[in-house]
UniProtKB/TrEMBL annotation:
Keywords in alphabetical order: Ribonucleoprotein, Ribosomal protein, RNA-binding, rRNA-binding, tRNA-binding
Family: Belongs to the universal ribosomal protein uS13 family.
Gene Ontology MF: a single term: rRNA binding
Organism: Hypericibacter adhaerens
One GO cellular component term: small ribosomal subunit
Name of the protein in its database record: Small ribosomal subunit protein uS13
Xref: SUPFAM superfamilies: S13-like H2TH domain
Signal sequence extent: none
Residue runs in coiled coils: none
PROSITE patterns: RIBOSOMAL_S13_1 (PS00646), RIBOSOMAL_S13_2 (PS50159)
Length: 124
């Protein structure tokens, strides 16, 4: 099992897909990394040589912000918004959707499970 950027990537998957297990790398960046290193797109992780794994690791460390550094940067950005007291920061602080979604219905992911309101029955 190859370990890149502190993440064990699955050995049976194609390298293109396995790289997306790293936080901060999606399909486009994975393809870009593979082109930089010069690995064919259909290669699987268990077929990689140690040299190729090292080259992938070096490219990611040099050119991309991933995993811990990226998570830390995002957390700092959110904290900055909250400290400023801007609208987006207030939405983060209250645990509500930040990007203008409706909250009258839906938004259950951010708001948590629905809580019953005592004495509020549907009028018949």
């Amino acid at each position: 099992m190859a370990r890149i950027a502190g993440v064990n990537i699955p050995t049976q998957k194609r390298v293109l897909i396995a790289l997306t297990y790293i936080h901060g790398i999606g399909n486009a960046k994975a393809k870009e990394i593979m082109e930089k290193v010069g690995i064919p797109l259909d290669r699987r992780v268990h077929q990689l040589t140690d040299d190729e794994v090292v080259r992938i690791r070096e490219v990611i460390d040099r050119d991309y912000r991933v995993e811990g550094d990226l998570r830390r940067e995002v957390a700092i950005n959110i904290k900055r918004l909250m400290d400023l007291g801007c609208y987006r920061g207030l939405r983060h602080r209250k645990g509500l959707p930040v990007r203008g979604q409706r909250t009258h219905t839906n938004a259950r992911t951010r708001k948590g499970p629905a809580k019953a309101i005592a004495g509020k029955k549907k009028a018949v």
